[in-house]
Every structure is written in C-alpha cells, then in structure tokens.
Specification:
Length: 297
C-alpha cells in the first residue's frame, strides 16, 4: 500500500514540476493531499470530507474510494458501507490490490469465506509479496474454511521471507490441524529459538491434548478488530451507476433494518454450541473474534 501511495503522490509531484501552473489549478491533487494528511493524523471525519469532495469532482479516481473506505473502517462505519467503497475502488481499477485485501478481510469478518478467499487470492496474485494480504488469506483458509493445505502454502511463503513469529505459529497450527506432528515439533523448536515461549507452549499443549479448542486459546487474535458502529454515517447504494453518475453520498440516516452484523456485536447470540461439539468454520471464527480484539500482525 505504501508503494502504491508513493507512486500516486510522485505522479502528482511530477505534474507540479513539469506543469507548475497545473498544480494551483488542480483541485483533485489538492484535495487528495489534504485528505491523506488528515488520514495520517487519524482525523477521519475531515479526511472523509476531502475524499468525498474529490469524488464529486472526479468520480473515477479509485484511490479516493480506497482511502475513503479506510477512513470509514477506522471510524467504525458498518461493514456494508465500507464494502461498498472498496468495491467501487476495484470497479474503477480491478487491479487495485489493496482494495482486494480490504475486501478479503471485511468478508472474513462477515464469515463470507468464499468471497474473502476470492479477493485475497486476487490481491496476492497482483502482488505476490503483499505480506498482510497473504497472512490474512492463510488465516481465512485455516480458521474459516478449515483447509490446511492452502493455509500451509501461504504461511510458508511468509515465513521464508519475513521474521514474523505469529506467522510461524500459524504454520504450526496448520500442521497440527493437518495431523503433521513432526512438523509441529519443528515449529515449536523455532518459536523457542525466537523466545516466543507462550506460542510454543500453546502448540505443545495442543499436542498433549490432541485437539485444538478455540475457547481456550485467547492468544489467537482475529484478522479484523471490530469497531463500534457509527450510526450517523450511511452510504447510498449506487453500485450500478457509472461515469459521471458515480458519486459518494455520506449524508442522512441509515436504513431502519439492521445492517450486516459485526462479529463482536452478535457472537454470543448467533450460536451457543453444546460442550464438546465440534465447531463449524463460522462458529470457530466467531469464537476467536469474541475472545480477542487485536490484529494478528
């Protein structure tokens, strides 16, 4: 994401060097820079206003939709609204890897695992070294779909290139769920060598107990930390509009019907499985998200 942002800013800088008159006459450049400045300062309301104004002038600018989506995500806007913005970004630019990554995480949080994987795979296909997207994809395969082999593939890719203990642990967990005990022991040794004794101990406990219990594994954190909903924000659904009609509308009140749920809001009410009953992929995800509120990376 930083590389893409650098290229965008460099493009605007080049315009300013070659065509200095265009800078003062370029409201898109000015609004984007102001929006990014507010975003960097975590002044999300001000950032939203700038990106919204930019899109009124130039509705085909995918980065504005992307960072507008990030601002709303950080502000705590409901998932449907955030999904709309990231979807607009990839509608304009289908190769916008960062928006595919955000959609992957958002759909994961909604337990829509197939969509999460679709966008995650697209993100890493566009950018093979996209670390956060690949890590997210690994956890989605492992905890959402319970598909160990692709999870092992993505965790291994990360571990070979980056020193991230949580990725090493994820690889160990995938090996455990795939009943590859020798590989789990090797991962435990690696974690101890990194002084990650707690992560190593958790894998050792799994080997002794012979099963993985998400209820008693609060050290596993969700991919997306749910934030409190901001009921004052709503986005009009204009997904089918195109060209000059594409506009963002962030005014008014939300619909009366309930939006898609956030995991932390409804995890307890959605299911309460009996003791010792195996959890489904969605139940496993909900339990993990209910037990913690931090990112795994």
């Amino acid at each position: 994401m930083k590389i893409r942002l650098t290229l965008i800013i460099s493009f605007f800088f080049l315009i300013g060097v070659v065509f200095p008159e265009a800078v003062s006459a370029n409201p898109v450049k000015k609004l984007f820079e102001e929006g990014m400045a507010y975003y960097a300062q975590e002044k999300y309301d001000a950032s939203i206003k700038k990106f919204e104004k930019l899109l009124e002038i130039y509705p085909e600018f995918a980065p504005a939709y992307h960072y507008l989506g990030l601002a709303h995500k950080n502000k705590g806007t409901v998932e449907d609204e955030v999904l709309y913005l990231f979807n607009m970004a990839i509608k304009i630019d289908p190769n916008y890897a960062e928006s595919h990554e955000q959609l992957s995480k958002a759909y994961y949080e909604l337990a829509e695992f197939d969509k999460a994987i679709e966008h995650g795979e697209k993100a890493v296909k566009l950018k093979p070294d996209f670390l956060t997207a690949r890590l997210a994809l690994a956890w989605i395969y492992l905890l959402g779909k319970q598909e160990q082999d692709p999870a092992i593939t993505h965790f291994s890719y990360v571990v070979k290139r980056y020193d991230i203990p949580y990725a090493v642990f994820g690889l160990g967990l995938a090996y455990f769920m795939n009943d590859e005990r020798a590989q789990v022991m090797d991962i435990i040794t690696q974690l101890k060598g990194k002084s990650e004794d707690k992560l190593a101990a958790n894998l050792e406990n799994m080997l002794r107990q012979g099963y993985f219990d998400p209820d008693n594994n609060n050290f596993i954190t969700p991919l997306v930390a749910p934030k409190k909903r901001d009921p004052s924000v709503s986005v009009k659904d204009i997904q089918n509009m195109s060209g000059a009609e594409l506009r963002v509308r962030l005014r008014g009140t939300p619909q009366e019907e309930a939006p898609r749920r956030r995991s932390s809001d409804t995890a307890q009410n959605q299911f309460n499985p009996p003791q010792q009953q195996p959890l489904t992929g969605e139940q496993r995800l909900r339990q993990l998200q209910n037990n913690s509120s931090n990112y795994p990376y």
